[in-house]
Amino acid sequence: MDAIIQANRLTADAVITLFITVTDDLHSISPAKIIRDHYRWDLVPILCAKEPDIVGLPERCIRVLIQFDTPLP
Q: Per-residue DSSP letters for the chain?
């Protein structure tokens, strides 16, 4: 998240929605909780889902989709 935030110059007020998927082997803590607690994105709508359990897909994978407003090209 640090790299994503820095590369896109993100601030919580610019984020419209955040969608996170995780593979089934990651189940210790909610990514939404980590993001809300660490980055203080309390008002950002965050949706988490599990990746489909399909043979051959990567393990220990977290995918992040962020919709945000930006003045950058």
A: -HHHHHHHT--GGGEEEEEEEE-TT--SS-HHHHHHHHH--TTS-EEEEEPP--TTSPSS-EEEEEEE--S--
